Amino acid sequence: xxxxxxxxxxxxxxxxxxxxxxxxxxxxxxxxxxxxxxxxxxxxxxxxxxxxxxxxxxxxxxxxxxxxxxxxxxxxxxxxxxxxxxxxxxxxxxxxxxxxxxxxxxxxxxxxxxxxxxxxxxxxxxxxxxxxxxxxxxxxxxxxxxxxxxxxxxxxxxxxxxxxxxxxxxxx
Length: 172
Known about the structure:
By secondary structure, the protein is an alpha+beta fold.
């Protein structure tokens, strides 16, 4: 399966809306609108057009030409400005196929090339071991956890913290 990252345009509005409404939100932050509307997709595409390469990078994950997920690296602010945070989502039917590992490796490479950063942070809720494995496979190191650091859907989770330094990235 060929995995590519694509910068979204207005032509992708319907697929963005479909993916964001279909994705399993169990371990995602709550900042993504639910339901995800045409207006949500338009706002996101316009935000990317204005900020891509400046405050982060945002891409669609394409598997054999089909939009199956999203991935980003967003810059921190103030004293965290040399650190990017990776985030991603993938439609359930594409889990456990190596797609996210490939996409994350591509995105990390792109972020280290295009953004003025020295590290990337990856966060995941402790039960989401698959997300942790994705990060581990591309070289992220465990840096600890915030105990009871996340409240989502009436549940409290530990937040696992991983990091990857630019000089340690093996996918250069």
